[in-house]
Design a protein that fits this description.
binds flavin-adenine dinucleotide, alpha/beta, binds FE2/S2 (inorganic) cluster, about 30% strand, 14 strands
Length: about 280
């Protein structure tokens, strides 16, 4: 029995991380990288918007969204920004290293609800990572959706993740893709400003649009305001909230707000259910 498969049987326990190998690693920007993880036979099915707890052995765990294609269960893809203890150590791991995974957790984006409607996807910074599975899904099942629009912003051109894919999507005629940066470099020919500014520049039929928004909370707040101004109801706007997660199983209460456990009932939530917690760091 291999080292990995012997531990694998224990990993059915939701508390126990499942050891997986890093099959591939790509540096996306100076502080952000994508890992492809070997999850064995059958892969790891997930819904767009769900997250895993990734464990660096001997260091700790962090909640990380799945950024890959939901129709491709293996390998498992995560895009990570090195910001602290766990993600900083994760950035040092090379291809072939072992990492612990438990999940997937959370509810995901409202894909079923979006069928037959226009889909407006709005990402800021690394907020594009949990939205990328939606983009893959919608493009793969294109006839199920109306107009599809992707608005994406980053601090600068060098901070844009998935740049080559953005270029491919920008050239497609079945999705409108607009990318904006806060601060331009010399080679940047696109718009400069913040993501909410793009919302006024695209056609939106508020009567049949579902918006999915992920990014820094300030960006989501202003984006939500712009969407409401364009006529969307708060019930048609979905945001993904990042809060401090520990168990991810609805036990510890670290992510709790009133009756909502964001690890279990989120991280994707309807705007009208969370308007009041938008400003709080710990809930
Ligand atoms: C549902 C969900 C999905 C997520 N998806 C992703 C994803 O796809 N990709 C991703 O990169 N992240 C994602 N995150 C965020 C990620 O879980 C957090 O950034 C996590 O805290 C990283 O763990 P860490 O140990 O590396 O950072 P921590 O050490 O916990 O640091 C987190 C923050 O605290 C600050 N900090 C750390 N130490 C100190 C200190 N001593 N003094 C002051 N500030 C400090 C850091 O600068 C950083 O901003 C997600 C979070 C959630 C809840
Ligand atoms: S992280 Fe423990 S209850 Fe949500």
């Amino acid at each position: 029995m291999t080292e990995l498969s012997s531990i694998d049987s224990a990993s059915r326990d939701p508390w126990v991380p499942r050891p997986t190998r890093i099959l591939r690693r790509k540096q996306e920007t100076s502080d952000t990288f994508t890992l492809w993880l070997g999850v064995g036979e059958g892969g790891a099915p997930f819904a767009p918007g769900q997250f895993n707890m990734l464990y660096v052995f001997g260091v700790g765990e962090a909640a990380i969204s799945i950024s890959g294609d939901p129709d491709v269960a293996a390998p498992l893809v995560h895009t990570i920004r090195a910001v602290g203890t766990v993600t900083g150590r994760m950035q040092e791991l090379k291809r072939g290293a072992t990492i612990g995974v438990r999940g997937p957790y959370g509810n995901g984006w409202p894909i079923a609800e979006a069928k037959g409607k226009d889909v407006l996807i709005v990402g800021g910074g690394l907020g594009i990572a949990p939205l990328r599975p939606v983009i893959y899904f919608v493009l793969r099942h294109r006839s199920l959706f109306g107009r599809v629009t992707l608005l994406f912003g980053a601090r600068s051109p060098s901070a844009l993740v998935f740049r080559s894919e953005l270029e491919v999507w920008r050239r497609r005629t079945d999705i409108t893709t607009q990318v904006i940066v806060d601060h331009a470099a010399r080679d940047w020919t696109g718009p400069v400003g913040v993501v909410p500014a793009l919302i006024d520049s695209v056609p939106i039929d508020a009567s049949k649009t579902i918006a999915m928004v992920c990014g820094p909370e300030l960006m989501m707040r202003f984006t939500a305001r712009s969407l409401l101004r364009r006529g969307l109801s708060a019930g048609d706007v979905f945001v993904s909230l990042e809060r401090n997660m520990k168990c991810a199983l609805g036990f510890c209460g670290h992510c709790q707000y009133r009756e909502t456990f964001l690890c279990r009932d989120g991280p994707v939530v309807r705007l009208d259910r969370v308007e009041s917690i938008f400003d709080r760091r710990e809930v």
